Amino acid sequence: MTSFLYKNPVIYEKILSLIHRSNFSKRYKLIASLVGKNKKVLDLGCGSGVLAKYLDPSCEYVGIEANSSFANYCQKKGLNVVSGNLFEVEFPEVDVAVISDVLHHILPNHKELLSKAQSCTKALVICEPKHKEGKITDILCFNRFFFNLFGDNDGINSYESMKSWDFSRPSLQRLLSEYGKAKTFEVGESIVASVDEYLDLFGQPGKHEQNLKVFRKNGEHCSRCSTIIKKIRVGGRGAYFCPTCQKL
Fold first, then answer.
1. Nearest to 48 by CA among 13, 23, 20
2. Beta strands in 59-205 (DSSP E)
3. Residue 208 has pLDDT above 60, yes or no
4. What is the distance between the alpha carbons of residues 188 and 10, in angstroms, rounded to a whole number?
5. Residue 130: its pLDDT value, please?
6. Mean of the per-residue pLDDT values for the chain?
């Protein structure tokens, strides 16, 4: 069962704009400013593709959306959007991956998505509802009845899992700090964050890419034997290997 909110992308946009009011556009403007210019952007769980119109014209937009009717709507608008499960679809290599209003939908698998997104990009931008103890900030999860008929019921994730979202700005900052240098901002009842300068196990800026031999080197020559490195899909993710040095 899917709520009325996720039946029609136009209605979805209208309802969200009513809920967030002026903060609706402020959120996307902040996300776009964090993305910057001349970037290839991957919008994970892109919904109706609202972010695309806020990005700088110099950016290249790619979206992935699980709701097929929403994905079709985006495609009719001329957006490069594919329909698929975020945990199954292979992510393209991009400059920035945006995850907006998605993590609270996929608890307790949010860390899996963060790790997968981090593997395909140089930076993350995240937007999620903030939690205040004793106060309901996400009206779309007001109660089970409202959730099922008009609220955040996407037909995939349960009411119980979404209600367990309890990240305040400080706790989301701590979570994202596991993945790199995180900066957080508040826009109304939402938290917008950027993560870059990925960290190693010791909390220092990661320099592992300097030692990579095949990762993200599709079409280049293997440094050991000069064979052309290839890329294949394994478990929904891209995998790189040298056909000579790493026989399957």
1. 13
2. 60-65, 81-83, 96-100, 123-129, 181-187, 190-196
3. no
4. 23
5. 84
6. 83
Element spanning 111, H or E: helix 110-118
Q: What is the mean pLDDT of residues 211-234?
A: 80
When pLDDT is averaged across residues 15-27 and rounded to a whole number, the result is 89
Q: Which sequence spans correspond to the domains of the chain?
A: 4-196, 212-241
- pLDDT tens-digit series, residues 135-169: 444 555 555 655 555 566 677 777 677 667 778 88
- Both tokens of residue 101? 């209003």
Predicted TM-score of the model (pTM): 0.77
CATH number for the 4-196 domain, one of 3.40.50.720, 2.60.40.1190, 3.40.190.10, 3.40.50.150?
A: 3.40.50.150
Q: CA 42, CA 40: separation in Å to the nearest integer?
A: 7
- HSE (CB half, 13 Å, CA atoms) of 124? 27
CA distance 106 to 102: 7
Element (H, E) at 231: strand 230-234
